[in-house]
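RECORD TYPE: inverse folding
INPUT: structure tokens
STRUCTURE:
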């Protein structure tokens, strides 16, 4: 299963970012795409077809709060059979069957708020959703707005508030038996 994850930081206005995503899909043959921060309050079917490159795409959009923190999950209809979804503040969880492997899977697209209380609420809600469907293969993608280690944060001093975030996030990962895949490309995704 090929999944791409990208914090797009806005898809409105011109079509440069839409073409960028379309080129990635065409080149890599993605089966599932998770986009964060689309900043779109409304998303049309035509826009999704344009981004994907054809009309063989399923999609769900979480508009966030006035477009902030908005999420877009898209999947190839020839690769996945949609079953259901759960949407909450900061996430979209898409339940489906991967047709090539016959696996029941869930791809969760996440964009976490920056404050710690909202992060804890999100981690709790995601944990509850995962516990309710243990018989699926899970993939969490997105921008959790937190790091796992002090060495991952550059350009800011890591204080006590960041240390508690690190501990909380690692506890969420461990409690849900998640495995962090290595990042490809630059070591830091934000400065």
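DESIGNED SEQUENCE:
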């Amino acid at each position: 299963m090929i999944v791409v994850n990208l914090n797009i930081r806005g898809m409105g206005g011109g079509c440069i970012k839409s073409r960028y995503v379309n080129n990635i899909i065409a080149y890599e043959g993605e089966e599932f795409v998770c986009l964060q921060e689309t900043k779109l309050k409304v998303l049309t079917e035509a826009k999704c077809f344009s981004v994907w490159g054809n009309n063989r795409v399923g999609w769900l959009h979480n508009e966030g709060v006035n477009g902030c923190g908005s999420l877009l999950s898209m999947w190839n209809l020839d690769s996945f059979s949609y079953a259901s979804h759960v949407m909450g503040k900061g996430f979209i969880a898409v339940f489906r069957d991967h047709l090539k492997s016959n696996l029941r899977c869930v791809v969760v697209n996440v964009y976490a708020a920056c404050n710690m209380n909202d992060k804890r609420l999100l981690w709790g809600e995601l944990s509850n959703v995962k516990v309710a469907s243990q018989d699926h293969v899970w993939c969490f993608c997105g921008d959790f707005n937190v790091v796992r280690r002090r060495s991952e944060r550059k350009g800011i001093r890591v204080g006590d508030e960041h240390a508690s975030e690190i501990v909380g996030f690692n506890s969420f990962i461990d409690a849900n038996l998640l495995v962090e895949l290595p990042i490809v490309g630059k070591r830091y995704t934000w400065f």
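NOTES: The helical segments are 16-28, 45-52, 116-131, 160-175.
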